[in-house]
UniProtKB/TrEMBL annotation:
Belongs to the ubiquitin-activating E1 family. UBA5 subfamily. It comes from Nelumbo nucifera. SUPFAM superfamilies: Activating enzymes of the ubiquitin-like proteins. GO terms for cellular component: cytoplasm; cytosol. Coiled coil: none annotated. One of its GO terms (biological process) is protein ufmylation. This is Ubiquitin-like modifier-activating enzyme 5. The gene is LOC104591724.
């Protein structure tokens, strides 16, 4: 576009020389200025930051990672720069998936794989991420366009396909197995799969692929009324897969495709989808960077601000054969895993405890309470300048209780007084 505009400027210049009539000069000059403004606008719109080779914690305005690396300085994350080593696949670039992709891109994830077959519509403008000028583009192409401008350091791979078809499923599996980004990965070429689809059929396809690859994944969803949602961590063999505990409608034998009516669509709120996407990415960061507690299941009810949590074990009678295989592998590996965990606990207990904050710039020290009780504090009069004394007794003197001997003396005096009173009354 820039080249075409510059050619247009050259044409205007040639036209100006060819038409010496002053009446035409003003119109040509106006067109030239218009073309120049379009060139400057096009150049500004394509302005992108250059790639950053290494993440830095230096606090300067030009460092896009300074605030992320601060998590490492504050002790939340041991090594934040490791995020560049991870690959995450996002299936479904809709209301939740697109926002999750943007969050991970801004966090500096190493590689993102994006899957969707739909196009951007004006009906999607009630959600976040997509823009009106992207209408008609595939959601994957629109996502790559936006995300590459936000952070050029992230490796983006887009797949415009339907994973529920035979060919789409084969391509999906092949892309997950690709280890070109990090050959050291074990079962697949990605570290985590995020399911952000809106139907049961696509979820079951993701479930099947992850069970076959023994791939950990997270499922997410927003309710049809747009006021609740959830995220769920699924580890093949260790936690329930999506077929272990299917939704009630599906378990009842109802075909979900018959529930949709012509001209009726589900509600969607950018707020609910944004919250669910935030919870999903937060759980993803905790899982990848190993900090905090990863939620096995977290729900969200917007009407009551209710966040239920639970954990589901795998079903020994699951209908998915790959899930049963992963369960057997998990049971066989459990003794060795438990022994390793006990060894780590024993090693941690043998370590000598060192004082927290042994050196501090404020010279703060911690002493035992018993030492405070044994310490002889000076009386309040000692705090006065030399030559001055308190006129009234100090508060410490009023807190002293009489000794046992003094109490017995006062009791004897009372008995003597009572006998004297009795003698007077007798007279």
């Amino acid at each position: 576009m820039d080249v075409e505009l510059k050619e247009m400027l050259d044409d205007f210049e040639s036209l100006k020389r060819a038409l010496p009539d002053p009446s035409h000069q003003d119109s040509i000059i106006k067109l030239q200025r218009r073309a120049e403004s379009l060139i400057s606008l096009a150049q500004s719109s394509h302005a992108r930051r250059s790639k950053v080779k290494d993440m830095s914690a230096e606090v300067i305005d030009s460092n896009p990672y300074s605030r992320l690396m601060a998590l490492q300085r504050m002790g939340i994350v041991e090594n934040y720069e490791r995020i560049r080593e991870f690959s995450v696949a996002i299936v479904g670039i809709g209301g939740v998936g697109s926002v999750a992709a943007e969050m991970l891109t801004r966090c500096g994830i190493g590689r993102l794989l994006l899957y969707d077959y739909d196009t951007v519509e004006l009906a999607n403008m009630n959600r976040l991420f997509f823009r009106p000028e992207q209408v008609g583009m595939t959601k994957t192409d629109a996502a790559v366009q936006t995300l590459s401008d936000i952070n050029p350091d992230v490796v983006l791979e887009s797949y415009t396909l339907n994973i529920t078809t035979v060919k789409g499923f084969e391509t999906f599996m092949e892309s997950l197995r690709n280890k070109s980004f990090r050959p050291s990965t074990h079962n697949s070429g990605v570290d985590l799969v995020l399911s952000c689809v809106d139907n049961y059929e696509a979820r079951m396809v993701v479930n099947q692929a992850c069970n076959e690859l023994s791939q950990t994944w997270m499922e997410s969803g927003v309710s049809e009324d747009a006021v609740s949602g959830h995220i769920q961590l699924l580890i093949p063999g260790e936690a329930a897969c999506f077929a272990c505990a299917p939704p009630l409608v599906v378990a009842s034998g109802v075909d979900e495709r018959t529930l949709k009516r012509e001209g009726v669509c589900a509600a969607s709120l950018p707020t609910t989808m944004g919250v669910v996407a935030g919870l999903l990415v937060q759980n993803t960061l905790k899982f990848l960077l190993k900090f905090g507690q990863v939620s096995p299941y977290l729900g969200y009810n917007a009407l009551k601000d209710y966040f239920p949590t639970m954990q589901m074990k795998p079903n020994p009678q699951c209908s998915n054969a790959a899930c049963l295989e992963r369960q057997k592998e998990y049971i066989l590996a459990k003794p060795a895993r438990d022994a390793d965990a006990k060894a780590k606990e024993a090693e941690a207990s043998n370590l000598t405890e060192c004082p927290i904050h042994a050196d501090n710039e404020w010279n703060i020290s911690v002493i035992d309470d018993s030492e405070i009780e044994r310490t002889d504090f000076p009386s309040s009069s000692d705090a006065l300048p030399e030559g001055l004394v308190h006129e009234l007794p100090s508060a410490v003197e009023f807190q002293k209780f009489p000794e046992p001997e003094e109490m017995s003396t006062s009791i004897d005096d009372l008995e003597d007084l009572r006998r004297q009173l009795d003698a007077l009354n007798a007279n």
